[in-house]
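Fig. S4 source data, part A: sequence.
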Amino acid sequence: MEVKNKVLERIDQCGDEYIAFLKKVISADTRILEHGKRGNEDNGQVIIRELLEQYHAQVDVFQPDYESMGFCPEVNPDHDYSGRHNVVGRFCGSGGGRSLLFNGHIDTVDFGDMGAWKSGPLSPYIEDGRLVGRGACDMKAGLCASLMALKAIFDCGVQLKGDVLVESVIDEEGGGNGTLACCARGYRADAAIIPEPSDLCLAPAHMGWLIYEVEVEGRANHCGAKWDGVNAIEKMTKIILALQEAERDWALTRRHPYLPPQSLSIDTIQGGVASTIVPDKCKLEFIVHFQPHQEKGYSWMGEKYDREVREIIRRAAAGDPWMDEHPPKVTLYQLGSACDIGVDHPVCKALAEKTEQITGKAPGCKGLVSGADGRLLNHYADTPTVHFGPGAMEIAHTINEFVPIQEYLDCIKIFAATILDWCQIV
């Protein structure tokens, strides 16, 4: 208790320093470009590496390697990792304690409308108790909170029994290859925390996703004699209606304690060339979000739902003479599994206890409606993972993105107290 109080007092004394460090990281342009095919992450990784080396971590700097990641069906192909590096720091304990891994992504999405930012996305400022800037919420505050928690512990001269690892990964916004590369490199721990924005609520689960492109063929002619053509947009409508009918059934039958029902979102549709020509092509993109499952007989989580989606489309097409003879082309071009370690996992209980001690109230429990990298650590690194961090997911990716400063500082304390308890003190 004496050591913990000493560390917490240190955090109170150094709040301005920790805020300044977060500002420095936000000021670095670490955007992914072209949905992760390129990226500027190394602008921020140099800052992370410098801090890790300052505190004598074993530092590993490396690029994702497609050859090593080829085992995983969730790898995202054709990304260029020239000048883009993961940075992993390991703080070795004396032995006898549990290991803990923090995984945070340094990359951010694009800036959006530059004119809508009050002070520019890379010029962080404080207003109404909030720190504003691109990545402040998603998820530089969470990543920095884990680093500042360790800084406070080591500045107080505390030695730990268990190892602590920090993975500052690239290309999370592009699909997760950065974390997958860490899994392929052999990094794992007794438990992991991903500080995604969760309002300091426990998020032991997140949804999986399947992203599809569907192409339907028609036959073009002058619309004045449309009966001699085949309207590809109208044919696609039958597929959309079938998918929406399935979604209504999912809403009634697929429930989870802290995740929403399985859903789909129709996000792009392209078809036609002119108002007087029956369209001969139509292309649809949609995403299915699904809940975790442990059923056997599938080579990857999501295969069950992929089969189901393809069957829905096949049946819709089979009921139409034209599409029965000219089947739609269905392409699954991105996927991510779901995960759930359960709120009663020891790492969740440890975080909950420390959160209540620091904030005076027990944390809520929620599932992330989006995907996250927790699935990769859970499924491919044998590391039970919970998501917990400052900020709200609803603020992520928005113009004038922000994180509440008090949540950031509280998170540093929660992480520090959790590390001391989980890894144990020498």
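Fig. S4 source data, part B ends here. Residues 106 and 140 are 6 Å apart (CA to CA).
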